[in-house]
F-box only protein 25
Amino acid sequence: MPFLGQDWRSPGWSWTKTEHGWKRIVFYGHELEDNNREIDLKELCSGNNENLFVGDVCELATTKRKKDFYNNNTKSQFVFRDKWIYVQKGSTKERHGYCTLGEALNRLDFSSAIQDLRRFNYVAKLFQLIARSQLTSLSGAAQKNYFNILEKIVRKVLEDHYNPRLVKELLQDLSSTLNNLTVHVGRCVLVGNVNIWLCRLETILKWQQQLNNLQIPKQMCDGMSFNDLPLYMQNKILYKLSDAYDIINLGQATPTLHILSENRTLWKRLCHFHFSDKQFCRNLVLTKSDNVDWKLMYFTLQKHYPMKEQYGDTLHFCKHCSILFWKDRHLALLFKDCGHPCTANDPDSCLMPISPQHFIDLFKF
């Protein structure tokens, strides 16, 4: 007997019991997450001069109103909140087809991931890589979902003032890609009406202006501040930073922090963290006294080699099950939950953290 249902490794559908039997739940739009904001038929038909109809005519008018309501208020066709997906790279007897980058973008719960500070930088970097090279490979629904999540990313930065520099770089790359596609390459590579893309370009420009005008208010705190810490503790915090621009920006806060941020040992450790010894030998930068200028060395190496990426939390891939998923550390510690229905004897040995670039490479066939 042929297998006609979904693959047994997929998360499955959500169902609800009604008077007429079981009905599959389909979510429409990111704003309809709480019971989809149901529209009452009587509420639409009463108190409105347009709906002076009876019987079937009233139902048709109400259906049209509902359709207009959903079109105006929904921003994505479907909302999935899957914690894991099966990465299908070819057809099998049980399942035909393969998983695409757009499908993974739609089904994995990136909207909730950006609310977690450990995953925010990871999602933002992934969206930056998609903006640079993979935007045209997404389906129309995936592109729509991409911009919906991007809007949430910008909104979080404006509200929480978290890492605006990374999002500025993301919007700059996205704007350059769209300008290149609409002007130089041609509109045929874009899915949808060109007016939609022009509106998206205007929206990106508005976001860039909002981020450029972002003013981070001074925190009024009666307790201990960063400047009240001993110098060795301030220096130890600087050594924990892996981003050179964070060190430079922190050094502009006070004269003391400026001196600490110019420490040669700090920049030497930063170079050793991101680059290898062979790369040092090819790009030595010496001062007049024949000492290595580690700060200048860092920015010289940055132009030629990729830096080491570091994220608080990432997606994981199970090599045994071919499943891509978000790993919940709390569940893993409390209940020894590996994050997906794994059949391996030792699930942890099969897990592999996925960088943003590796995530994109997974869907290159």
